[in-house]
Design goal:
CATH architecture of the largest domain: 3-Layer(aba) Sandwich
CATH topology of the largest domain: Rossmann fold
Bound molecules: nicotinamide-adenine-dinucleotide
Strand order of the largest sheet: 3-2-1-4-5-6-7
Number of domains: 2
Strand content: 5-15%
Distance between the termini: 30 Å
Radius of gyration: 18 Å
Shape: globular
Helix content: 40-55%
CATH class of the largest domain: Alpha Beta
Number of helices: 9
Structural class: alpha/beta
Order of helices and strands: EHEHEHEHEHEHHHHE
Largest sheet: 7 strands, parallel
Length: 260
């Protein structure tokens, strides 16, 4: 399928690994010029030759977002046609243990990164027209989990933001979100990541057993997805093929338990 992306300029926020990396590669493969921002400078430099440009910055800070926006404007000479807001990070904790500082940090990572980028780039994207934004949400936005409350609240906020921005900037900028279920990335596999957290949660010794219990508990018959499963949907929503879709929030793989 031709996603009709040749000549488009795209910025992928938080793309050194995982879903963001898969999106950056697919956009590039489809003919777009792609800049990737991330805080992992070493890995960005290792992968830099695959994309038009890379910018290393803490994208959960106002200064880091400013730096990324400056780099994008300098490299492309203007705002991008496509903005992928993929920054997000969640660690389990009980509600009573989440301090004010952690709430503030979680907001900075999971909501403010997207808000700051949209505020900086959307006016120019809207002025040019035919632009698209895709935000990476989570199935937890619609299916609250007590152990990931700060993360889930931010992902629910991202849905509101997606729909409100879609309304404000239509028809010049389409704004959509994807809501992935579990996707096998470093979020799961890194030391202290979701798999390790599940081992502790279920009190089992074995990582495979912990994942199996999780899939049964959450009723996830499709199992765990891959970064490419999400990237395919994001690139479609960012492409002109989705020209009649805005304000939508697409469930990917994980949301069979409820009606919404
Ligand atoms: N993996 C899943 O199961 C899952 C499910 C639902 C939603 N998501 C969402 O998908 C998105 C991508 O997650 P992933 O699974 O690919 O994770 P990942 O850990 O593979 O990638 C996250 C990327 O974000 C970067 N990053 C983290 N903090 C940063 C910061 N402060 N500044 C700049 N870059 C930073 C990391 O270096 C990494 O490249 C996130 O928004 C996450 O919430 C993931």
């Amino acid at each position: 399928m031709d996603f009709q992306l040749k000549g488009k300029l795209a910025y992928v926020n938080a793309g050194a690994w995982g879903i963001g990396e898969a999106v950056a590669d697919l956009l590039t493969q489809e003919g777009a010029s792609v800049i990737v921002g991330d805080k992992d400078e070493k890995v960005l430099q290792e992968k830099a030759s695959r994309w038009t440009g890379v910018v290393a910055a803490d994208l959960a800070s106002a200064a880091g977002v400013d730096q990324a926006v400056r780099f994008v404007r300098q490299t492309f000479g203007r705002a991008p046609d496509i903005l992928i807001n993929n920054l997000g990070l969640g660690d389990s904790a009980s509600f009573e243990d989440i301090s004010d500082e952690r709430w503030a940090r979680t907001f900075d990572i999971n909501l403010m990164g997207c808000i700051r980028l949209c505020r900086a780039l959307l006016p120019e994207m809207a002025a040019r027209g035919s632009a698209a934004i895709v935000n990476t949400g989570s199935d937890l936005a619609k299916q609250p989990e007590p152990t990931l409350m700060d993360y889930g609240v931010c992902k629910a906020g991202l849905l509101y933001l997606t729909k409100a921005l879609a309304k404000q900037y239509a028809p010049n900028v389409r704004v959509n979100a994807v809501l992935p279920g579990p996707i096998w990335t470093r979020m799961w596999t890194r030391e202290g990541g979701i798999v390790d957290q599940l081992v502790l949660h279920y009190g089992v010794a074995d990582r495979d057993a912990a994942v199996k219990r999780f899939l049964e508990d959450r009723y996830l018959p499709l199992g765990i997805g891959e970064a490419a499963d999400v990237a395919n949907a994001i690139v479609f929503l960012a492409s002109p093929l989705a020209k009649y879709i805005t304000g939508s929030t697409l469930d990917i793989g994980g949301t069979l338990r409820g009606l919404i």
